[in-house]
Automatic annotation (TrEMBL):
<dbReference type="GO" id="GO:0006508">
    <property type="term" value="P:proteolysis"/>
</dbReference>
<dbReference type="InterPro" id="IPR023042">
    <property type="entry name" value="Peptidase_M17_leu_NH2_pept"/>
</dbReference>
<dbReference type="GO" id="GO:0005737">
    <property type="term" value="C:cytoplasm"/>
</dbReference>
<comment type="function">
    <text>Cytosolic metallopeptidase that catalyzes the removal of unsubstituted N-terminal hydrophobic amino acids from various peptides. The presence of Zn(2+) ions is essential for the peptidase activity, and the association with other cofactors can modulate the substrate spectificity of the enzyme. For instance, in the presence of Mn(2+), it displays a specific Cys-Gly hydrolyzing activity of Cys-Gly-S-conjugates. Involved in the metabolism of glutathione and in the degradation of glutathione S-conjugates, which may play a role in the control of the cell redox status.</text>
</comment>
<dbReference type="Pfam" id="PF02789">
    <property type="entry name" value="Peptidase_M17_N"/>
</dbReference>
<protein>
    <recommendedName>
        <fullName>Cytosol aminopeptidase</fullName>
        <ecNumber>3.4.11.1</ecNumber>
        <ecNumber>3.4.11.5</ecNumber>
        <ecNumber>3.4.13.23</ecNumber>
    </recommendedName>
</protein>
<keyword id="KW-0732">Signal</keyword>
<dbReference type="GO" id="GO:0030145">
    <property type="term" value="F:manganese ion binding"/>
</dbReference>
<keyword id="KW-0479">Metal-binding</keyword>
<feature type="signal peptide">
    <location>
        <begin position="1"/>
        <end position="26"/>
    </location>
</feature>
<keyword id="KW-0464">Manganese</keyword>
<feature type="domain" description="Cytosol aminopeptidase">
    <location>
        <begin position="348"/>
        <end position="355"/>
    </location>
</feature>
<keyword id="KW-0645">Protease</keyword>
<dbReference type="InterPro" id="IPR008283">
    <property type="entry name" value="Peptidase_M17_N"/>
</dbReference>
<dbReference type="InterPro" id="IPR043472">
    <property type="entry name" value="Macro_dom-like"/>
</dbReference>
<dbReference type="Pfam" id="PF00883">
    <property type="entry name" value="Peptidase_M17"/>
</dbReference>
<comment type="subunit">
    <text>Homohexamer.</text>
</comment>
């Protein structure tokens, strides 16, 4: 953000204004006449109503606004005590092949979030937002940018409501709000401390969120059922904790054809991961409260699909438990049996996510799915490979990859395809005591790839994808429209993927 400019003869009179309502307007980088201003349609209308005052102030208040920069003006309009003008970058920005996203949409999300946060810092509690030519992206930038997990703090950020300035594309705005609220739900679940989000508490929160869509969504919270399903791999992870495991199952029936094959989304739900007997280092272990990021994004995606009333059938599956050390915990070298009858030598109890997913994947096949997508904060190796730039995708289906990739270009929440070579399969199937080894022969080499190869041993569906989201679990400053903390990625990509599948029917 840049300079703050005022239009009052007496600067002290600023304090007399009770800043309740603000406005965010966009301006493009002008490649034409030096010093001229290229406003968005909404900003131009606002400027016209002020007889050109906004344009004049932009010209005299400093250099032209660059992408993501901002300037605030006070007292130029009686309805808006403060107006934030934000830089949108070039007006001709489009899909960038090198970056694998739509630069225009990303620029809008970033700019709008900057403007909304500046107004929030001024304790403005209602903000109207310029649609900037893409109301959905503007809404996503506003709602994502304003989110902060402060539920457990005494001093909280000002709560800001947002709405579209004018009525250019109210449907696009509402869609963007729902997309962003879905990601914020995942962020809330991931950020909350593990003593607040136990498996039981997680399931209860999701149950509350889908209650308003009860005509389309059913929910099953299953305890004793897990043992009857012979989910030995899942139970082997949960037995070290005093918290009971939960198998959460969501059914969203939005298709006009109830017999239409569903999309099955499976999310890893380790609500706290200590590593078990293979204990993690204490440094940054607190972040393992978000090791249920896969379950959070999957469940938030189902809630969002229901809110959007997407004409598709989706089943969300989330095996939820803690991975803790105790006298009852699984020991390195133990052998357990998965739902499909395959035995697994557990040489490292900190490679637990693939164990609970194995049983959930087997169960997911019983629904004769159109496609199965599992999502998991699975391996540190994925963070090493891609960092926070993209989620890694391992898939046996070119069609499914194309759908996921196309969705990620739209959302800016990118994915990148990774290999599923037999080279990696041989490493997990060469086991001394059982059919499979949960870490493979070479635990440090290609860890994300061997984990994917392990999961593939529990897949028979022709369209399956595994998203390793360990690298995108949290945000420092990489995504400008997300604050520091747990990211909720890739919720919007999953929702956009489901939307795209509908349109391709």
């Amino acid at each position: 953000s840049t300079a703050v400019c005022g239009c009052f003869s007496d600067a002290s009179s600023l304090v007399l204004i009770y800043l309740l309502q603000g406005l965010v307007l966009g301006v493009f980088e002008n490649e034409g006449e030096q010093g001229s201003v290229h406003l968005t349609e909404a900003a131009a209308g606002f400027d016209k109503a002020l007889s050109g005052k906004l344009s004049e102030l932009l010209k005299i208040s400093g250099p032209a606004l660059k992408k993501g920069k901002s300037r605030i003006f006070y007292g130029i309009h009686e309805d808006f005590p403060c107006v934030a003008v934000v830089g949108l970058g070039k007006n001709n920005a489009a899909v960038c092949g090198a970056e694998n996203w739509d630069s225009s949409k990303e620029n809008i999300r970033q700019a709008v979030s900057v403007g909304c946060r500046l107004l929030q810092d001024l304790e403005v509690n209602h903000v109207e937002v310029d649609g900037c030519g893409d109301a959905q992206s503007a809404a996503e930038g506003a709602v994502l940018g304003l989110f902060e997990y402060d539920q457990l703090k005494s001093k909280k950020k000002t709560k800001v409501t947002t709405q579209l300035h004018g009525s250019a594309d109210s449907a696009g705005w509402e869609k963007g709000v729902l997309y962003a609220e879905g990601q914020n739900l995942a962020r809330l679940l991931m950020e909350a401390p593990a003593n607040h989000i136990t498996p039981t508490a997680f399931a209860s929160i999701i149950e509350e969120k889908v209650a308003r869509h009860a005509e389309h969504v059913t929910i099953h919270k299953r305890f004793d059922w897990i043992q009857n399903q012979e989910m030995g791999a899942f139970l082997s992870v949960s037995k070290g904790s005093e918290e009971p495991p939960v198998f959460l199952e969501l059914h969203y029936n939005g298709s006009p054809d109830p017999t239409r094959a569903p999309l099955v989304l499976v999310g890893k739900g380790i609500t706290f991961d200590s590593g078990g007997i293979s204990l993690k280092p204490s440094l940054s272990m607190d972040a393992m409260r978000a090791d249920m990021g896969g379950a959070a994004t999957v469940c938030a995606s189902v809630v969002t699909a229901a809110a959007l009333k997407l004409p598709v059938n989706i089943i969300g599956l989330a095996p939820l438990c803690e991975n803790m050390p105790s006298g009852k915990a699984t020991k390195p070298g133990d052998v357990v049996k998965a739902k499909n009858g395959k035995t697994i030598q557990v040489d490292n109890t900190d490679a637990e996510g693939r164990l609970i997913l194995a049983d959930a994947l087997c169960y997911g096949h019983t629904f004769n799915p159109r496609a199965i997508v599992n999502v998991a904060t699975l391996t540190g190796a994925m963070d090493v490979a891609l960092g926070s730039a993209a989620a890694g995708v391992f898939t046996n289906s070119d069609w499914l990859w194309e759908q996921l990739h196309k969705a990620s270009v739209v959302t800016g929440d990118r994915v990148w395809r990774m290999p599923l070579f037999q080279h990696y399969t041989r490493q997990v199937t060469d086991s001394q005591l059982a059919d499979l080894n949960n870490i493979g022969k070479y635990s440090r080499s290609g860890g994300a790839c061997t984990a994917a190869a392990f999961l593939r041993e529990f897949v028979t569906a022709p369209h399956w994808a595994h998203l390793d989201i360990a690298g995108v679990m949290s945000n420092k400053d990489e995504v400008p429209y997300l604050r520091k903390g747990m990211s909720g990625r890739p919720t919007r990509t999953l929702v956009e993927f489901a939307t795209g599948v509908v349109h391709n029917d």
